[in-house]
Amino acid sequence: RKEVEQDPGPFNVPEGATVAFNCTYSNSASQSFFWYRQDCRKEPKLLMSVYSSGNEDGRFTAQLNRASQYISLLIRDSKLSDSATYLCVVNSGSSYKLIFGSGTRLLVRP
Amino acid sequence: NAGVTQTPKFQVLKTGQSMTLQCAQDMNHNSMYWYRQDPGMGLRLIYYSASEGTTDKGEVPNGYNVSRLNKREFSLRLESAAPSQTSVYFCASSEPGQGSSYEQYFGPGTRLTVT
Does the structure show a pLDDT above 90 at B78? Predict the structure, then answer.
């Protein structure tokens, strides 16, 4: 079983749609959680950290469920520029090393 | 601030050739990392350096060596390149100190093809 699992997609949605991505992780000792965004042929960039109480940044909302070891990302009012691959990232147990999911690809169409 | 820089951006090698990928960061981070990214595999950790003077193996270290030259620079060497090392290589840095949430910052990547 992979340490971080994501649906690879692609999710193909129209502009303005709301889309949600999910991710599960296997190590219950993990303490830090992130969503990274990766554009085609570019480096991953931090989109947002994920906190236990849930957090929002503009159109983006991240949720963490420690009991189920599950992380989600909700994108409201999708823009064409949101088209990218979204990586779920978790630290490795008590270590500062990060484990990256394989990513979920999002395509937003006009 | 340039952040994390990598050279070269692209490289084509023949099997058996050697090369060094360079990485530098100007964020005064203690920790640096080398990853490879292959289609459908996600990012896999090759080697990391917790601080200047230390290096450790990651998930896929075979065929690679690293040098933490100073706090800014962390290089990755392929001694005898193989086609299986065709990949995109990313360097990253972080400051996992007290109060940090471990986020890493990435360089633009090196696209390596081994024929």
Answer: yes
